[in-house]
Amino acid sequence: MVMHKMTFAMNKHLLIFNLIFVTYLKVVSSENSIEEDNDTQGRYLIEGKVFPADHPFTPPNWQASTQLHVNGGEYIGFVKEDGSFIVHNIPSGSYILEVLHPEFSYEQVRVEINSKGKFRARKVNHIQTSAVVQVPYPLKLKPLGKTRYFQIREQWRITDFLFNPMILMMFLPLLLIMILPKMLNDPETKREMEQIGSLTKFEMPEVSDYVTNFLAGTSQTQHAKKNAKNKKRQ
Amino acid sequence: MCLKFVVIVLISFSTTAFSSNVEYDGWVNINLQHSLTFSDKPVFTDRGNVTIQSLRTGTAVVQQKPLTQSDRVKLRDLSATNEFYQLKSTVTLADGSEISFLSTVKACMLVESELNDILSVSLDYSGRVIAITLAVASTSTCEGAVVPIDKLKEFSTSVFVRHTENGPTPDTATYIQKLEREREAKERGDVKDNRSFLAKYWMYIIPVIILMVITSATNPEGAGAAR
Amino acid sequence: MIATKNFKYIFLIYLFNISYCLYEDQIGKFDWKLNYVGNVKFGTIDSTKRVIVATEENVIASLSLKNGQILWRQVLENPALNQIELLHVDKEVITVSGGKGTWYVRGWDSSSGSLLWEWSFYMENKQRPYWILSKGQLVHIIPVLGSHIEITSYDVHNGRNNGKTMKISTPWVTDLSKCQTAGVYWTCISTNDSSGQLFYTDMLSSANQVRTFPIQSLIGSAPGHIEIKPLESGDSNLFLIRNNVARLLKLQPEAPHVYPYSLSDKAVTAFNGDQTLLLQTIQNSPTNKLTIQTIELQEGTENVFEMDYTNEAGVANIVSAVCKGTACRIFVKSNDNSVSLLQLPGGKVSWTREEGLSQVVAVEFFELPLSELDASIEHEFDSISGDIFSTFYNRIFSQIRQLLVVLSGQQGDSNIGMVRDEFGLHKIIVVVTASGRLYGLDSMSGNIVWSQYLKGVEGFSVLGKLSVPLFVQRSARYSPLMAQCAALMKDKITGHGVMYTFDPITGQSIGNIERLPYQIEQAMLLPYEDDKHMKGLLIMSDNYEVMVYPSSAKPVLLKHASSIFFYTAGSKSKILQGYNLVHSTTDSLKATPTWTLNLGPADLIAVNVRPSSERVHSQGRVLADRSVLYKYVNPNLLAIATLMDDPIHKQVLSIYLVDGVTGLVVYSAAHKRVGKPVHLVHSENWLVYSYYNARFRRMELATVELYEGPTQSNSTSFSSHAVSQLPHPQTQAYIFPGTPLAMLATLTERGITNKHILIALSSGAVTEVPWAFLEPRGPHGTMNMEEGYIPYIPELPIPAEATINYNQSIPQVRGIQVAPARLESTCLVLVYGLDLFYTRVTPSKTFDLLKEDFDHWLIAIVLIGLIVASYITKRLASRKALKLAWK
Q: Residue A172 sits in which domain range?
């Protein structure tokens, strides 16, 4: 459907066609005063296109749930099937345009219409009001991403579990009780360790063996245990 | 016919500096009337006159008649019954128009302060009087002190002209400067981290040392046993 | 330096994290939302099981015919300035909306609600035009009294102007109340009696022939006041109404056809195949019954149906109806603005939507009474006989009862739901709507517990906002005494005060609705209770007489008369006047003026006081050097905002903090070149306000905090009379990248929890800003770096995580109400606008509750594990000892 984008002023038949104004306005004035007088004579329209989130995340019927607010809802625009929008009946001045969608966030844009009807769109910078970073007009508004309303709940992970202070509290004493006496009382092990030169590399499988042997008393492990004992007796 | 002239030059309570950014100036004449019998239809009698010669500086001339003996008794009675003392101030502006304001204080507080009161004249941003309030400087309400009646003779009134300050504005200038400084610092190249090796990596070194200490604490014994 | 900066940054994020916490799985766990469309203005049942409605809230929506749920909803411009003037449902939905010369014509997809096309125009002429939509032509009519009418017609789909503006000479248009559009006709009567003439002319034909008929030739010459009204949804049909009896005329190019039926002017048509049915309600039916009459327009067969309709407010009008054979579906609107779908011939109400709740004007939270069991425990302490044995007996007895109840596994009560819970989270929310209906809502579910309709009343207009003051005279704490709440309204016709007292728990009226014989100027709740724990309600009439309700509160009032102060903020004169009641006698209460504040030409736009139940826990603020800066906590402060036109600064906003007892202006500040919207929040020793800075075109939030200084003048009590020194204000301002619609500070039981400011934004989000972010930090905040110090950033962030209503946008928010739970950490919040949204906020997290995701299992497993491990090691040790012994 081809739409005629126009606005009417009863006395002043003011027609603004869908032209791309590449406006080159100088910085209006110093930072201290950027105010212009609103000329209520002419009425203009802000137009552009809203893009939904990329394919797999495009919400169904997103056009109906997207709205455009100019100056906090003073003027409202709605999105058509193809994503295009027009906000009507705006006198010249400076406006902040925001896209409202419950699930996606968009960047705000400042649109300035001078009294001659020239448009300029720029990034919103409330702090440095004179800094102009121009964006193309008609506006092309792309989502920044899905709005994160929620905190992510921490997932249960095995590492978290193991490094939990309580678990450490439980296992470390166990380890100390089991390993330290072994280390202190078994001279053969010491000697062997010295031979291999590494304390930890050897000790770790030894402990696991020991524990598994104790808990599961299968013949195989008993065999292994014997082996281990033999080894120690060497 | 004994008029007392007190010239008090007082600037606002809060700051002394901002009278310079007051854009307006002018004079205000305030006629003070008080009611020494507190009833629902108060009868106001003349108390005195205050002329603020300059709103900007707050220079005020206070002319007040001393209280007559009967007025003093009335005031003391008012105080004794814990009633209110009312003041009606009629402001004559430079253009001749009149506005009147009402103010009420506890009579006993006025008596206990020995007629030492404060007249606060509040102005709006354009220098128009919006309120005239009588107050007595005190940290608590009446303490019940007995004040001899001869001390209730003359009002010594301090006049405070209280301007409406300019409200706060977001301090963007310092923030922009701060950002600018940081940007410059970045442009100059990253700030050289000229701390020593230890200062930089102490958090990694200490656990290693601890580990070494622990192992060495266990090792010598083991070695000793082996020998 | 970078390291410290990073540290601050991290700290900031950390702070955000601790302040806001809602997990995705908590959706709907303690919040609920009720969606509404508003007060229905136009409605049409379309062919595909939908009702398309347009409402006073400038909302267009589609409701399911089956269950009344909203299928889609579009919120248009601000309803205060823009209204939907025309709704046309065809293949697509066409609306004409706007106001003050700005008009929008929009086409909507009737199944999805998305915009199909739109055009608009702007006129210098601010007069409200008349609209006719027929055959794809939108005709726009502006009458000029006594002279002519201007007709412009457009192609409705694209706004193309079909030819020039036509002018038809109509010297007979003398009074717009006597003119209407009916179908394609513009029609007027010349006088309001039978001697007059009926004029009509076709707006679509180019001939513009004006027809004139004497009224008495149409409906006879009986005396009476005659009016005309178009038949909604009927083409070119007009009612001629005489003494509330309407006769239907069909306007035709030649002569009007007069139908021989006596009707009510609220009749509507429904099309049943090729027949046209007229439907109307008959009012003189018994209560709980609604009688609907149907008349076949051509044949004149009449049918009367009686149906169950239990709304005591009564039906206002039939909005739309559709019939198929004998079955009709009738969409009706009630006087309380609720809408229902009725089914004929069954006579059943299919569904009802309480659309009145879209116009909430006042909200109050009420504590629920104790359950019977808890109450019996309370009663134990009623008998003050200090006998050890009897109290011991009582104790044992009630504990046995408690045990029995627990064992039997039931509460035994019938009103099981509406009892107080342990943490005081379950409350009843009383809301008053603009239509005069009061609702009690269950705070857990949002279900309506009770509702009560008050006829012929409306709210007061306070500072441009509709308001109904609600006063909690007695809470449910004093069982068996009933809780009592009073609502003040005014009579629609006389403007006199109306007082309605009721039990907020059950909604039952206490006594009759009291119609006061005067207008209400000011009302306040006395801070003192009488012997029955009832707080008196003080009302000042428009001629400054003072009354107290109930009269039993009078002795208490007289006792404290010298310490009761109140003020009036005159809407007519811009003078604030303080009063006290010191001259009251037992015969009459007298308000004596004590102070005046003259605002001059400035407009009073907002007045705010601290919530009376607020407690300030911390008396001061600890500075970096460990010294204390004491807060100036004055419970009598009024925060006032005024706006004044200025030739140089355009508009100047002035903020005053005024002591309500002495009238002393404690703080004043002015902002030049700023404008509306202005919102004020006053709490503890601080004030937050928002305004639009027209110079930099941005919203700003400013904060003021009052401190007594390093010493406290009087640590035991505060008196407004004792002015030792004026407080030192600290101020700061921030840029706020959003448009606030309502603002409020959280409130908790003891004031220990941090404060958050809840701000409802125009985007539909309700965000919370921690007070710590707004707190003034002195000059540049570097001097007094104290604990928990957050560096000053001029622009406040609005993080999405801080949105308490997550993706459930609330359009057109009008207010927020908060109430403390009995759990110190928790504050209950109701946001009302077009929708109602309830949730809980925990500004300092739930520090007094175990975390919701607290892992009971992990603890249990670890404990068991430890025990098992110790046993195993014990056994191992003994075995080893045995082995050693054998060696």
A: 158-233
